[in-house]
Amino acid sequence: MSIQNNLLNTDHSRCASCNGVVISDIEKNENICSNCGVVARENYHTSYSGSHAASELDRSQELQGQTSLMMYDISLPTLIDKKNVDASGKQIHRHVEMEKLRKLNKFTVSNNSKTRNLNKAMKEIRKITEILGLRMLIAERAFYIYRKALGKGLIKGRSIAGIAAAAIYIACKDAGIMFPIDKIGEHIENLDRKNIVHYYKFLLRQMKMSVASPNPYQIVSRIADRAGLGGKTQRKALEILNKIEGNPIVSGKKPVSLAAGSLYLAALKTREHTTQLRIAIASELSTITIRKRYLEIAKIIEKSDTTNSSQDKEGLDCSTVCMAKNLDK
User: Fold this and answer.
1) Assigned fold of 216-324
2) Please, what is the average pLDDT of the chain?
3) Is residue 92's pLDDT more than 70?
4) CATH class of domain segment(s) 114-206
5) Are 74 and 67 a contacting pair, CB within 8 Å?
């Protein structure tokens, strides 16, 4: 058995080969040993198959107390045991009435509108996250957001798939994963980007949630890897981002566009061959956006360099005058 298979059989806390600490990369969906660097990819094995609530109740004994946010009842359903024993431990002899009560309980749970809604949303979230290769952590976070929205009555009259897609997008942003909203909409029928953005803003507004803006420093390496740019260009792009940070000209601009524009300017400065089209494809932006951000950033850098050079010249002149005065004395 290979080292990677051994890692998959562990609890993802210690490496099976060197006993090093295993860390998780949420964006790449990998568990990596911090000591030897062995990568163990996570498999999506879950105890819930997404079937109806009645069949889930029949298999409740197999769950053996496991809980998960990806279950409509968090794996804590109300069950009537088959032992026909009351709370005090006394035997119940009305077997026919107890059997009717069990059937009625299953029927009530499986025909609850809230349960059906959660089951459908759970299937949508699980399907999308598995297709996109996102971790179970993202799916659970998205389902938690959906459950909260359902509890506040925000789902009624709206698309379940649309709210589920918006919840996945919010969960990705919470985890710091830069995931295009267009890719989420590709796997949902009769739902385009405009609808997902609408539901995304609706959830943020109604649930009073705040999502942190992505850091352009974290996006540089991802765009550079896709565009095939070297480490020297990446370091230069980070220096450029550091210089333009806080400038009002780029205030409010998309972090992805700032990272892409900085990379293009850095490639020109390091004389590494690339094109605006290549960076636009790598950052999933248009060439017009790349060109605009590049010109804005270049203008800021040029102005900053001019100011620094003038200050250096003034300092040099002052030092020269002081030296001349000392010589005269």
Assistant:
1) Cyclin A; domain 1 (1.10.472)
2) 75
3) yes
4) mainly alpha
5) yes
